[in-house]
Write a structure and sequence with these properties.
about 475 residues, mainly alpha, five-stranded mixed beta sheet, 5 strands, globular
């Protein structure tokens, strides 16, 4: 039987349609079956995904012709296409629901009631800012007095009352888009008089019994940030950076005593937020802070890359200024892009991408072992949708994470990295995989040698999403 790689080569170089048809026939059941499983048995959606996967295979045939095993790529491509389709379908359903609500007859302000409001309320609440949503939830869903609200939100009683009034006005505007009109006072009355939820008998006891059998643990993005920060060693700047990153063995530390003091304060706040007797909403407020901080960090990394790339271009035009990381003004020899043809080239290119905080370049040279990529996908499922939309693949997301970490601790100068590589011999872990003494591993791929993303970094490095060190630093 002709190998997959040969069939792909024939198609890529000779546009041999029969060769490609043979590939499709050979792997069609495999791809369609995977898509069917991942899309919950929706056959028409599975067909759509299957077609997209094989179209992508044709487009990348020249590159993939060097793959010895095509099944792994087909499976990953099917998983990615299925996840993308599901996200698209969810967005479409939300739009249809909103359009349906808007097409219904308008509600007379005098006839507004809970039955009319309930089906669209949560969609409208979700569009409020967190600050306004919290005000509505605390006042009308938890029944907090204004004085209690003020203490929890750090406001006076009058300020808490004004915040609720403004939030009601904005909620009313969002409900109008769903063709439900009312006065602010009528809306407040309906929210305040909503029926009590009937809790099934024995549910609390059942939950309590189940809780005894498991180890309680926070979930999602916030738990990763929380645990990494609370357990972070509060030690000297250089060593703290080294343990945090796990990327380089030597660099000048950037974590100051002031930064460490700030970390201690953050740890104290996080412990308070997760204590058994913590005030309601304190944990959620802390989680929102770090979620917002993640998007701020994403913008910061992009800005820093722009600054460093611009300074590097100027330095390249002026050989006398060709030392130091882009824009930093120090004396370290600059790194440059060496490509991925050899493990040594990939190591030097990795240093260059870290030095310039180039998240896209890092994404292109990251390699995940299949089980690590599955873990990365599972971790990304806990992230805010806004962050995943910005970095939709594990390679893109962890390229961003690595770039962010590199801002805390850049690599040594190019001369130091080159000397390290010249004095060490990588060890062959298995065919096509080499490991350096600094625990960096590189995998041979059709695109060249790539840096193997370490499994511990999938969760442990997410602490950077909550770090204030980066966003408060002026940068080069």
């Amino acid at each position: 039987m002709i190998e997959d790689a040969e069939l792909l080569r024939r198609y890529a170089e000779e546009r041999d349609q029969a060769a490609f048809a043979e590939l499709v026939q050979r792997h069609l059941a495999f791809v369609y079956g995977a898509a069917l499983r991942q899309l919950g048995g929706a056959s028409h959606r599975a067909e759509e995904v299957t077609q997209a996967v094989f179209v992508d295979l044709a487009r990348k045939s020249a590159l993939l012709a060097r793959h010895t095993h095509l099944a792994g790529w087909l499976y990953r491509s099917t998983r990615f296409a299925s996840a993308k389709l599901k996200r698209s379908e969810q967005r479409r359903q939300r739009r249809e629901q909103e359009a349906h609500a808007m097409s219904e007859p308008a509600t007379n302000p005098e006839t507004l009631n809970w039955d009319r409001l309930r089906p669209v309320l949560d969609d409208a609440l979700n569009e409020l800012t967190e600050r306004d949503r919290d005000a509505i939830l605390l006042r009308f869903f938890e029944g907090r007095p204004f004085g209690d609200m003020g203490r929890q939100l750090g406001l006076s009683e009058d300020a808490a009352r004004m915040r609720v009034e403004r939030a009601l006005g904005r909620l009313r505007t969002l409900l109008v888009r769903r063709h439900i009109t009312s006065t602010a006072s009528a809306l407040a009355a309906v929210l305040a008089q909503q029926p009590a939820v009937a809790i099934p008998p024995g549910l609390a006891a059942s939950i309590g019994s189940a809780a005894v059998l498991v180890t309680p643990a926070p979930v999602g993005l916030f738990s990763v940030i929380l645990m990494s920060k609370i357990t972070a060693p509060l030690i000297s700047g250089t060593l703290a950076a080294a343990l945090t990153l796990g990327l380089w063995t030597v660099w000048p530390g950037r974590v100051t005593a002031r930064d460490l003091a700030a970390l201690r304060n953050e740890n104290a706040s996080l412990r308070q937020a997760t204590a058994p007797n913590a005030a309601p909403g304190l944990r959620e407020a802390a989680a929102r802070t770090y979620t917002d901080g993640a998007l701020v960090l994403a913008r910061h990394v992009e800005e820093q890359h722009g600054v460093r790339s611009s300074a590097r271009a100027k330095a390249a035009a002026n050989p006398a200024a060709a030392r130091g990381p882009a824009g930093s003004g120090d004396s370290r020899p600059q790194h440059r892009d060496h490509g991925l043809a050899t493990p040594r080239d990939a190591s030097l290119t990795f240093a260059w991408a870290c030095d310039t905080a180039d998240a896209e370049a890092l994404a292109r040279m990251i390699w995940f072992d299949p089980e690590v990529r599955e873990k990365a996908l599972a971790t990304m499922a806990t992230l805010p949708a806004s962050l995943v939309d910005r970095y939709p693949t594990p390679e893109q997301f962890y390229g961003f994470i690595t770039a962010a970490l590199s801002l805390q601790g850049p690599p040594p100068g190019a001369d130091v990295v080159e000397q390290m590589l010249s004095q060490t011999t990588p060890k062959e872990v298995r065919p096509g995989r080499l490991a350096y003494p600094n625990r960096h591993e590189y995998q041979q791929t059709p695109e060249g040698w790539k840096w193997v993303f370490p499994e511990p970094g999938v969760t442990r490095w997410l602490h950077v999403l909550g770090d204030s060190v980066l966003t408060s630093e002026p940068g080069p």
